Amino acid sequence: MRAKPPTTCRTARIAAALLVMATALPSPTSWAQGANDATKAVAADPQDAAYWLRNREGWFWYRDPPAAVRRPAPPAPKPPRELADFEAMQRRLEDLKRVAVMNPTDANLTAYMRYQRMVMNKSEHFAERWQRLVWTVPDLDYGLSGRPTNGMAINVFDEQQRERQAQTIKSLAATHGLIFVFRGDCPHCHRFAPILKRFEEEFGFTVLAISMDGRAIPEYPTARPDNGMAARLNATAVPALYLTAPATREIRPVGFGVMSMTDLVERIAALAQDAPAGARQP
């Protein structure tokens, strides 16, 4: 029996090995399924996929970041036509005025005066419409929240205000007093003394009268002579009246010269609002 050539044996062995490898390798369908699975893995989580499957990243491919989309700015709201008309009217009026001032001819003055009359008519119409709106909208009527403008309502408002001021001053009189600085030869002091005396009696204040020249006046016959108090109070004009709180030794001027009863009430009531809480009677 003739032996087989070595080449034939080697070829047979290679063919057998290839056959074994072919049986061990997956089928083409499995390859396609594997490729699909790899693609799905990249789509699901690119970080988990093999770097060679992510060939558009890293050093395989340089990809510029997407350009930011610049949105156009919204258009500015167009100003109302009335605003432009008003500004044009103001400019026209000012121009006519300047021309008339620099060249006051009859024609220039007439043009300015006629245009000014037109502007005044618009202002009058505006004020009329304003008033009519106030009549129908109570919260816009200042007369209902502040001092009224109607004569009868003013009387009611003033009466209520006087009552509130009187209560405030009477409460203040329990903790405060008045210092009255005068001169016996001062006619204004003699005119003011009766008013102060009536105020003292009506509201219960205690008045300390100090005479700068040692002379008394009928309403305060027991006035004390000045011992330097007038200088400490800086009483450069008489009559002078001061509000004092003995508990705190605070002294504040009420006024100088002749004051009416209404002036005294309003001024002392105003000072009462600024008085410290500890110096007022609860």
Automatic annotation (TrEMBL):
Q: Does the keyword Signal apply?
A: yes
The reply to whether Signal figures as a keyword in the UniProt entry is: yes
Which residues, if any, are the signal sequence? 1-32
- Give the matching InterPro entries: T4SS_TraF-like, Thioredoxin-like_sf, TraF/TrbB
Q: Which UniProt keywords apply?
A: Signal
Q: Which domain of life is it from?
A: Bacteria
| Pfam families in the cross-refs | TraF
Recorded hits in NCBIfam families, A to Z, give: TraF-like
Q: What is the protein's name according to its record?
A: Conjugal transfer protein TraF
Organism, scientific name: Thauera sinica
Point out the gene that encodes the protein: traF
